[in-house]
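Researcher: Here's my situation. A collaborator sent me these components and asked whether they could plausibly form a single complex. I don't have experimental data yet, so a predicted model of the whole assembly would be a useful starting point for our discussion.
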Amino acid sequence: MTDVSYVRTEMLQEKAPPVSQAGIIKWLRENMFSNIPNSILSIVALWAIYYVLSDVLPWAFKSSWNANSLGECRSAIAAAYGEGASGACWSVIHDRFLQLIFGFYPKELYWRPVLIFVLMFVAIAPVLFDGLPKKMLRFTMVYPFLAFWLLWGGSLWFPLMIIAGFVLGYLAFGVVSKMASSLVGMIAAVLVPILWWLFLSGDVATMLQSIIPLSIESVASDKFGGFMLSITIGVIGISLSLPIGIVLALGRQSDLMIVKVICVGFIEFIRGVPLITLLFVASTLLNYFMPPGTNFDLILRVIIMVTLFASAYMAEVIRGGLAALPKGQYEGADSLGLDFWQSTRLVIMPQALKISIPNIVSSFIGLFKDTTLVSIIGLLDPIGLSTNIRANMEWNGVIWELYGFIALVFWLFCFSMSRYSMYLERKLQTGH
Amino acid sequence: MSTITDPVQGGFRISMLLYDTRYRSMTIQVIALIGFLLAIGWLFGNAAQNLAALGKPLNFSFLGDTAGYDINQRLIEYNSQMTHGRAAVVGLLNTLLVAVLGCITATVIGVLVGIMRLSKNWIISKIMTVYIETFRNVPVLLWIIMTMAIFIEVFPKPSDFRGADAVASMKLFESVAVTNRGIFIPSPVFGSGSMAVIAVFILSIVGIFVFGRWAHKRQDETGQILPTFWIKLGIFFIPSIIVFYVMGQPISLEYPELKGFNFKGGFHMRNSLIALWFALSLYTAAFIAETVRSGIQAVSKGQTEAAAALGLRPGRITSLVVLPQALRVIIPPMISQYMNLTKNSSLAIAVGYMDITGTLGGVTLNQTGREMESLMILMAIYLTISLTISTVMNVYNERVKLRER
Amino acid sequence: MKKSVFIGTLAAASVTASLAAAGTLDDVKAAGELKCGVSTGVVGFAAADANGVWGGFDVAVCRAVAAAVLGDANKIKFVPTTGKTRFTALASGEVDMLARNTTWTYSRDIDLKFDFIGVNYYDGQGFMAPKALGVASAKDLDGATVCIQTGTTTELNLADFFRANNISYEPVPIETNSEAQAQYLAGACDVFTTDASGLAATRATFENPNDHVVLPEIISKEPLGPLVRHGDNQWGDVVRWTLNALISAEELGITSANVDKLASAAGNNPEVNRMLGTEGDLGAMLGLDKSWAHRAIGVAGNYGEIFEKNIGEATPVGLARGLNAQWTNGGLIYSPPFR
């Protein structure tokens, strides 16, 4: 046995791959410079990024945060960065930050909108996450009334009386549908609360208020402004539009000719006109449609029109959800002997709503962005406030800082929500 | 109900309206209709009462009154002595103009961005993602206002072009002036004999179509493929150019010139139009890009591979296999984006572009105080535009729908 | 009231209801709050500060009326209105009065069914141009680009002026004043036209006011004043005479400094006595108490003081009294006597 061997017995040292095939260079070659057109594109893109950033970044960072007026700010920047330096006057944001967020809401009551905003997440959590106990849904039901009470203040009895209306409606449904058919029950469930709200609740609330006063300081809606106004309009609009949208979607799908025509007509009309014309209606016409002498304030009128607007879109979203349900679900529900309302309530809607959630979030994003239109009819949302701020002598002439800040806040809200809805969509897809 | 001819066994009882499924739906409908009519009647009764109390019952005669205000951009002849109705038409044309321009550019940008977002080039696809996410998540009103602000603050004013040491100069061989009042571009002047050139040009376009069909037919019959693109390009340019020179160059260009306060001559594209057009296009393009991307991704990979297995070249795979299938997914949401763009063009008032909302729903409404009538007409017009677009969409959907068997 | 109980339940705090038959004065007293329509922001005339407190020349009229009627100048709900929404806001009862630089015109008074209760500022439409443009008169503006704020009488005056002088122009309509200003400064238009007071206010806020001139032509009459709904004469009288009280106070030398003293006991001037309620009871005729005028003047002083504090020469707006001086000083500001 010779120990001549043709097979190497010890391992060779590993060699590093060629420089062009490793690490960052390989990545660059594959992802940015794979061929000549791609390389040109990449270089152009890099140049464009540099061009934009070299203008924007110095402006954004050579800034002043603590001036009290535009003139003061400009001289502060000139002092710090030399004559002729143009920098951002972020001090306008610093100065008016609270106003841009809360509008003219009384300072000592800021905790109320903040609390409501935080509670909002608690309220929607059981809808969005499966793991949470279903009992939390009860809080979700109460939340709108709580939010209304905390935001506008006043007597607690008014929202309680509205809840009482719903309770009465539910009781009426239970009692009447046992005595007669469920259709009569439905009619009673609609009629009783309406009659209660129209004729009794106001007096009862006033009476209860005088017996047991339970009220907090009320805040008129002209004090609402800034992002708080946008969020208020957006959230109220979308949550009120959900039930209306469900009814409209069911109406649109129904076999009942007249109901269908009414629903389709409404949906197509609202979707066919721009929101701004509906807001013009809110600002100039809506009072004409009310009995003489009635008078709503503008924010309430805007909320009404925005709700109608959102319901039409919501109806289409839910119709999409209904259409996406497999036919077997409908047939299965029928075969169990459930009537229309039972099958809708117990089988169809829960599933249809669940698959609609990503689209509901998207339409909320759309609505939230559209709330900026209220500035055109004179409400002081962030854009309206930016005009108002510039009407003050101190800040006359500030443009980019305000717009930039507003755009950034909107972007943060909308981007995070859209990411969330995408995540949800993916999560729902794996179920199939 | 007594007129029902359907024989009812055991006679008709009133309770059957509720319990018998044959009549129940009828009952519901009648209740719904009555409720609906009551609500509508209540609303309009109130409105009539209120308007009567204000002393301005519904009356459209203000449309025939003298408007008294000027409009800067008018596609048809208009001056301040003409009627409010005419002003509304001028506004409507401006709306349609910006909507059409916006839809075209939004489609071009959107398709390009959507394709580039799928590009293998990392930096390009990231830039496109940033663009899409930035534009989609900020309100369009803010974009419109900011675009206008950029146009006003960044571009030079006409006086910067003046004098020996002018700070700004005209672009493209001294033919285009980009100012903060808008862009001035040369406009064609049609001399005598220009009709012939135009006629030949139209004929050559017809020729391109005829040739295309002939080439297609020939390919079907013989299997030979002609270089149609180059031939079409030739038909497009050559006859017109020949006639243009034969007739002694009857069409010339009028260049904008700095005269008095402003540039004169050529087309003046006001920056209100450009800002609105740009902002709407960029905003809508971000949505269209997402549509295009998801449309392309919706075509399953097997389709591409199958086409490749048949021996088609990559270009043909895209044009013959991928695109026709992707379009079926892309077009419906794209058309609803067109609808959104048209509706969003009503935000023109934010930049002072005199569209229908700016004329009829703006100055006319303010000056006449006829908000009910103005808004009714305004909504009816937008509704008509939207319904037209959605009709087109439905027709198209019917045509491309997969015939399921 | 019945009809709106339901709505009242829905939003008790944000909804008010009143029967049209009841007078506005009673409604305001019952609500304990004056709803006053103002503009969304014009330097010196109406703007909200960082704390949301409204101030300005137009706002001062609202505060005086609130003080006269309710005894508290802060019991006001300010409703910002745009050129488009202001008249409907007033007509529909959303506001009780409109104090927003609104020109008194025939059609607004007659056709739109409003009552202008007086004039608190005599204005006229003018032009502002950069000095560098070298324009001396508005008649030299042939072919110029003109920035106008929409929703006012301005665009009609402008069309009339250029038509009458047979010269052409390019109108650039703009929704808000601050926007118009930005465009003018950037040179997107050659001249900026609005009421002369607005021009002065705008010019005052420029970095280099001296680079801009206001052209001599005033092309229109713009009497600006508060207005109320037509047909409610009692309320109209309250607002009218509150404004007149402010004007008379200046003429009679009543200022915020001496009003308390003058109102404490009858003095030598019978008109002062009548106005401040130390003699007779003019307030009762109006449906108010004796010291209504005292409270109105007590808020921010007389017309002259309000003018100087908000838009006078000492302020950045820097308006001279001009036409708005008392008639005794050669101006047009004139109040009927308190008798």
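Model: Some features of this prediction you could bring to your collaborator: Residues 188 and 311 of chain C are 28 Å apart (CA to CA). The interface with chain B takes residues 20, 83-84, 87-88, 91-92, 108, 111-113, 132-133, 141-145, 150-152, 155-156, 158-160, 162-163, 169-175, 182-183, 186-190 of chain C (CB under 8 Å).
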